[in-house]
Amino acid sequence: MNDSLPVEQRYLRKAGLVMLITVLNMTAPLSTDMYLPSFPTMMAYFGVQASVLNLTLVGFFFFFAVGMLLFGPFSDRFGRKPVLVAGLGVYIAACLLCAGATSVWQLILFRILQALGAGCMVSVSTALVKDCFSGRLRGTILATIQSMSVVAPMLAPVIGALIVQYASWRTTFLVLSGISLLSLTAALFLQEPLRPEARLRGGVWSSLARLFVVARNRSFIRFLAIVGLIPTGFMAYIAVSSYIYIDFFGLSESAYSFFFATNAAISVLGPLTYIRINGRVAPRKLITAGLSLTLGGGLAVLLAGRLAPLAFLLSFMPFTFGSSLMRPIATDILLNQQETDTGSAASLINFGNTVMGSLGMVLGTLPWPTFVTGLGTIAAGASLIALAGWFLLLRSDVPLSGVKPGPRPAAVPASSGSGAR
C-alpha cells in the first residue's frame, strides 16, 4: 500500500467510499418506509390488527438503537471491515427471512435481526468517515452523505407502493436484500482503515466498557446532549404531519405528499448550504445560527401554524433548514472530541439521536389541544433548552475541539488487561 496517497484513496476511490457510506446510512429509512404501503395487504395476509403489525416497526426502532450502540465498540476492537461485513450479512439474511415469514411473530423476530444489522451498518459507516477523511473535507463529506440520504425517505414509500401494486409485500424485503448485497460486495473491496496497533485489546465486555469511557468525556457528552435535543422536534413532525395536513387542515393524501416533499427538499438544502460555506463560517457561528433558526421555526409554528397549510409549511421550514444545516458540523465536532474510540463515539452519536428522535415521536402524539400546538411547543422548547445549553457550554471551562480554544481531549486508557490499546 502506498502510504503517500491521501487516506481515502488508499481504501476506496473517494466517490465509491462516499457512495458506500451513503447507502449504508439510507438503510434505516428504506427498511421502515418502503414496506409501509404494504401494511393493509400484510394485515389481511397474517389476519392481525394494525397494533400487532406495528410491532414490526416498534421492534425495529428499538433494536436499531441497540445495534448502533453495540457494534461501534466492536469495530474498535475487531476492525471496521469485519464488523461491517458481519452486519451486512446479518441484515441480508434477515431480509430473506422476512420475505419468507409465514406468521407475524416470525416477521417481528426477523425484523429485530434486520434492525441489529442496520444499526451495525450505520455506526460503522460513521466511524469510517472519521477514519478516512479529515479537516474541512470531513465536514463536506458528512454534508454530502446527509443530503443524499434524505432522498431515501422521500423515495421509499413511492418504491414500496409500486412494489405492492405489481408484486407481493415479500418483494420489498427481497429488494432490500439486493441493495445490501451490492453494499456487501463493495465492502469486501474496502481495505481495513483501523490499523492493528490502534485497535482495542481485551474481550467483548471491555470493548463495550469503552462506551462509558467516551461518555465521561465532558466535551463530547455535553455537546451531544445539546444537539441531540433537536431531533425531538423533527421526528415529532414526522409522527404528526399527516394528522396535521389531512385531519386538521382537511387536505387529501396527494396534497399532503406535496407539502411533505417540499419540507423534505428543505432538509436537503441545509447540508448543501453547509457545503458552500464550509470553512468560511466558524463552527461556533454555524451552531448558533442553526439553533436560532430552529427556535424561530418552533415559535413561528405556535404563532401562525394553525392558520393554513401553507402557513404551517412556511412556519416549520426554518426548523427544518436549521436542523439540517447543523447536523454535518455537529457530527464533525463530536467526532473531533475523541482521538480514539471512534466506533464508540459513533455509536453514542447515532444512539443519542435515535433515542431523542423516538422521544419526539412519542411527545408529538400526546393529547395536545392540537397537533400543531404540540409540535410548536416541542420544537421551540427543545431549541430553547439547546440554545441555552450551547451558550453555557461556550462560557464554561470545558474545551470543545474545533470550537473553543483548549487542548484536545487525550485518549483515556482502560485499566491494564481490560480494554487497553
Automatic annotation (TrEMBL):
Localization of this protein: Cell membrane
SUPFAM superfamilies: MFS general substrate transporter
Membrane topology: Multi-pass membrane protein
Domain Major facilitator superfamily (MFS) profile: 17-398
Record-annotated membrane-spanning stretches: 12-32, 52-71, 83-102, 108-129, 141-167, 173-190, 220-244, 256-274, 286-304, 371-394
Keywords, in A-Z order: Cell membrane, Membrane, Transmembrane, Transmembrane helix, Transport
Pfam families: MFS_1
Keyword Membrane: yes
Xref: Gene3D superfamilies: Multidrug resistance protein D
Family as reported in the entry's similarity comment: Belongs to the major facilitator superfamily. Bcr/CmlA family.
NCBIfam families named among the record's database cross-references: efflux_Bcr_CflA (TIGR00710)
Protein name: Bcr/CflA family efflux transporter
Protein source organism: Symbiobacterium terraclitae
